[in-house]
Design brief:
Elements (H helix, E strand, L loop, with lengths): L1 H18 L21 E3 L6 E3 L6 H9 L11 E2 L3 E2 L1 H11 L17 E2 L9 E5 L8 E9 L5 E7 L5 E6 L2 H6 E5 L8
């Protein structure tokens, strides 16, 4: 019986070592350009902060493409528009369309380098929320902000709620109660 215990202990140890090396971002479309041409997802030296390199992509281009996906149904864990998206699957798919790497899970965006006050938000910034249980203060949902000149805020996201899919939602009291952070990834939004 003891050899069997050793086998399971070694199996569990090896499994945990292997899974630690998995990246937390994916490209959902084949990259046909030179790989050196792709904007990388880069941790900052000495810490776990992430910078998303948007290259020449503009917030307007991002929003224009993101809006074309409205109506695709919700599907947990999916980045496939033919099947549906979860919230971070939608964000991943939109950015990967432009060959920009992003964290695959919404919680990964909590490590993005630049947090801003929601009052200073601009179109293209990302908004992070708790999951559906707002008492658990961990990022569990996210969207792409659209901000009008008079500061009306809506966001594009894939929801498992009543809209059940990719939709645009105002920053209403329900989402304000779940609000956690706003992160800026486009340098041009600092101007």
């Amino acid at each position: 019986m003891k050899p069997l215990h050793y086998f399971f202990a070694i199996f569990i140890w090896l499994s945990s070592c292997i899974s630690d090396n998995k990246p937390d971002f994916v490209y959902t479309k084949p990259i046909t350009a030179d790989p050196t041409d792709v904007a990388p997802l880069t941790p900052q030296p000495g810490d776990s902060v992430v910078t998303i390199n948007t290259g020449q992509l503009t917030p307007a281009e991002l929003i224009k493409y993101a809006e074309t996906l409205k109506g695709i149904p919700y599907l947990y864990g999916s980045t496939d528009p033919a099947k549906g998206f979860d919230c971070s699957g939608y964000i991943t798919y939109v950015f990967n369309h432009f060959k920009v790497a992003v964290p695959r899970q919404s919680v990964g965006f909590a490590s993005v380098k630049k947090r801003i006050n929601i009052k200073n938000a601009k179109t293209g910034d990302l908004i992070l929320f708790t999951g559906t249980d707002s008492t658990v203060k961990v990022v569990g949902h996210m969207g792409i902000l659209k901000v009008t000149p008079d500061k009306e805020i809506t966001f594009l996201h894939s929801t498992s709620g009543k809209d059940y899919g990719v939709t645009e939602t105002p920053l209403n009291p329900y989402y304000q109660g779940r609000y956690m952070h706003t992160v800026r990834i486009f340098p041009q939004n600092d101007k």
